[in-house]
Design goal:
Rossmann fold, 5-stranded parallel beta sheet, globular, MTH538 TIR-like domain, ThsB__TIR-like_domain
Length: 212
């Protein structure tokens, strides 16, 4: 029976990754990463966060609560969140919310630069800041809260104001000095570090970093 399962290559678990990205600017590059992640691994890998543009537009018309619900549902069954970093990803409100909800969920984090990948016209873009450098945690009284870097300073993160519980493996803040989320996450360049070959190992490392 063992040999039968081995020959069929039936996995025991699926790895579900939530991808966070700037839809309007980077969807072409992002879809290349998505296809590479799932290619020949349909039974062991799932990708979340890939919403049709019409869904985003419909949610925007009905207000931010609708978008928040969409994001929460997308992250619900994932164990790792990958931020695909383009030129302006760091300043997008909903990318930051996806990161925040990933912390709440206890997901492993990683940031992967996609600026060196060509778009539909074959053009590359400028390297953008790491969005995980713009989100942080700090201690407020007896609890840990989320912060964001906004208008040149660190402020309380208003889109999620409840205390958060960090993974046991993460260094905890001891005071109001922030710890950037990038401290807990690997940073890679998809093109230069052969993401088509190595991406799955980056995901495994991110999961292991939070005990998943």
């Amino acid at each position: 029976m063992n040999s039968l399962f081995t020959s069929l290559q039936i996995p025991t678990t699926k790895r579900r990754v939530f991808f966070s990205f700037h839809y309007q600017s980077d969807v072409w590059r992002v879809n290349q990463v998505r296809q590479s992640w799932r290619y020949n691994h349909e039974y062991s890998r799932e990708a979340e966060g890939f919403y049709d543009g019409s869904i985003w537009e419909r949610s925007k018309r009905t207000g931010p609560d609708s978008l928040k619900n969409l994001i929460r549902e997308g992250i619900k069954n994932t164990s790792v969140t990958c931020v695909l970093v383009g030129s302006n990803t760091f300043e997008r409100r909903w990318v930051r919310y996806e990161i925040a909800r990933s912390v709440v969920k206890g997901n492993g984090l990683l940031a992967v630069g996609i600026h060196r990948m060509g778009n539909q016209q074959g053009y590359v873009s400028n390297e953008g800041p790491n969005p995980l450098d713009y989100m942080a945690v700090y201690k407020a009284g007896d609890s840990i809260r989320l912060a964001e870097f906004k208008n040149g300073k660190w402020v309380k993160y208003d889109d999620y104001t409840q205390p958060v519980t960090l993974p046991a493996t993460w260094i905890k803040p001891h005071d109001t000095n922030v710890i950037r989320l990038s401290r807990y996450a690997g940073r890679y360049c998809y093109k230069e570090q052969l993401g088509s070959t190595n991406f799955s190992s980056w995901v495994r490392q991110a999961a292991a970093d939070v005990g998943r």
